[in-house]
Structure formats: structure tokens, C-alpha cells
Design brief:
Strand content: under 5%
Shape: elongated
Radius of gyration: 18 Å
Number of strands: 0
Distance between the termini: 25 Å
């Protein structure tokens, strides 16, 4: 499309600027994760316990994986993950948080 040679040393960001476009895939994924997370948190079932990490038992050794809620709290700029969990109870508030985060991008 832009006739950029594969040997040209251009970063992805400069190519996106030349094409006058932005990265949409990551924001779409985050938006869908957030809507699914809100759905799960409102249900108060086993999925709720698994997602929040409130299950009994020992944690595995080594570096712990990042939890879904922590990643979403960072994306939504909710501060702590507890604030994000509380926001899911009010569907309107949760949807506006998702919409605002999606407008700002990644």
C-alpha cells in the first residue's frame, strides 16, 4: 500500500503515522475483556471467585502471573482493582468507564 521496502529500517509507529492510522486491535481486545469481566462480576458465581482470585489453596512458586483484574484496572485507570470490582456493580458506570478508556486508546 505505501510501497515501503522490506529492507527500509522504519519502525511500526512511523509506518502507522504515514498510513494515518492507529492500532485498534489491542483496544478492541481490552474492551471485550472489560465487558466480559463486568458480566462475570455481576453474576456472583464460581467464575467471580476464579476471576478475583479468592479461591482457597497455595499459590505456585515463581513470579506470579498478572491477574485479569489488575490489567483492566490499569487500562481503565481505576487505581486499585477493588475500585474496578465495585464499579462493575453499576452497569452504567462500568460502561462509561469502558467507553472512556477505549477513546483514550491503549
Amino acid at each position: 500500500m505505501l510501497r515501503i521496502s522490506w529492507t527500509a529500517k522504519k519502525t511500526n509507529d512511523t509506518v502507522l503515522e504515514e498510513a494515518h492510522t492507529t492500532r485498534l486491535l489491542i483496544s478492541k481486545i481490552r474492551k471485550r475483556q472489560a465487558t466480559f469481566f463486568g458480566h462475570v462480576m455481576r453474576r456472583e458465581k464460581l467464575e467471580n471467585l476464579v476471576t478475583t482470585g479468592m479461591l482457597e489453596g497455595k499459590r505456585s512458586r515463581g513470579k506470579q502471573r498478572e491477574k485479569l483484574i489488575e490489567g483492566l484496572a490499569d487500562w481503565l485507570k481505576a487505581g486499585k482493582s477493588l475500585e474496578a470490582i465495585e464499579a462493575t456493580k453499576d452497569r452504567k458506570k462500568w460502561r462509561t468507564m469502558i467507553a472512556n478508556a477505549a477513546k483514550q486508546g491503549t
